[in-house]
Amino acid sequence: MITQELLVRARTSRVDMAMADTETKNRALLAMADALEKNAPAILEANALDLRAAEGRVSPVMLDRLALSGARIAGMAQGVREVAALPDPVGQVLRREERPNGLVIEKTAVPMGVIAIIYESRPNVTSDAAALALKAGSACVLRCGKEAHRSAAAIVDALREGLSAAGLPQDALGLVEDTTRQSANELMTASGLVDLLIPRGGAGLIRACVDNATVPVIETGTGICHIYVDRDAGLDMALDIVENAKCSRPSVCNAAEVCLVHLEIAGAFLPRLRERLADARAARGLPPVELRLDEESAAVIKGVPAGEADFDTEFLDYILAVKVVDGVDEACAHIAAHSTGHSEAVVTGNEETARRFLARVDSAAVYWNASTRFTDGGEFGLGCEMGISTQRLHARGPMGLAELCTYKYLIRGTGQTR
User: Fold this and answer.
1) What is the pLDDT of residues 78-115, one digit of tens each?
2) What is the pTM of this model?
3) Does the CA dihedral 54-56-61-64 come out positive or negative?
4) Are 290 and 355 in contact, with CB atoms under 8 Å apart?
5) How far apart are the first and last CA of the chain?
6) Partners of 405 in the beta sheet?
7) How far is CA 276 from CA 60, 208, 236, 279, 305, in A?
8) Which residues pair with residue 116 across a beta bridge?
9) How confident is the model at residue 417 (pLDDT cuts 50, 70, 90)?
């Protein structure tokens, strides 16, 4: 099916989705989750073909993003069930005013209409995005990268089976068959057919959508995330946080890419950082972290000299840029100059320093004594997420059901005229 036809069918089905009640949508989501588990063998078979085609062309870290397993499919199904258990945002009254003339005005959440998502090589995004869009009463059009297309197609087939079981139109969920740039451009310029476009992926994909789209876009994803280790930090806590933020899953957007260290503790902290992230990990057979060091940190420990672009790079790998700063103000200034506005953290026992950091750093999620890896819809209690918005308008941070709705005003009168 060509992309234009897919969009037209989604546009037609949006009315049925908008009119579906909560019980029907939840029944569909539960059937979709069951269908994922029932069709796990077919999904894994398709994923094996994707993995075989990608071997030698992408990094091991990116292969991990692409790979599915029985446990990961079960996790996808559980994510869909968690969305079913969430309150339905559609129809919620966001504000109510009763005017002196007797008019009752209600600002009411309503579906977006048709939500298109362009994403790269993470098959689990397929079920997350579909579940959220459908629960929010919208039709959903997915366009994944070629590396994950077989996997995504098998997942969508299962999800559409669940939609049908609940009596909802299969056309409310579609996967673009064309994986060339042409189909991405079609979604970006589908004015009148797409109500909201959400890109999930690397900086190049997101920038292409922001620069070229004629439909509304929410900018998501790119994460040059920073951790500032202050002079009043507990060093054991700081090491735990930095290792988790960098190493627990380096290929995701909430992984730390830069560590800023206060000058007064650099001599004590940096050798322990190298031992923890590089030497000890290598000794345990784990991938060591390559430390890219500015001049001050290179005077304390061994590593790779940081290049001009290293503090502006989302590595998505076992690489961490390290810089020594003279205090919280320099840390905040560095973050303002280099961050993508995703997630930043300060590790300190000084409440005033933390307060200053939290107030000055202008990112979607700002942490005190916690890992940036918590920037996630599930961790924030939103169920799975559509993405992490790094912009300020409409949605910011993890995008759950509420962020996938718009609103309209419903006004009830008794014959008032103006």
Assistant:
1) 999 999 999 999 999 999 999 999 999 999 999 999 99
2) 0.85
3) positive
4) no
5) 51
6) 111
7) 22, 38, 10, 6, 19
8) 141, 197
9) very high
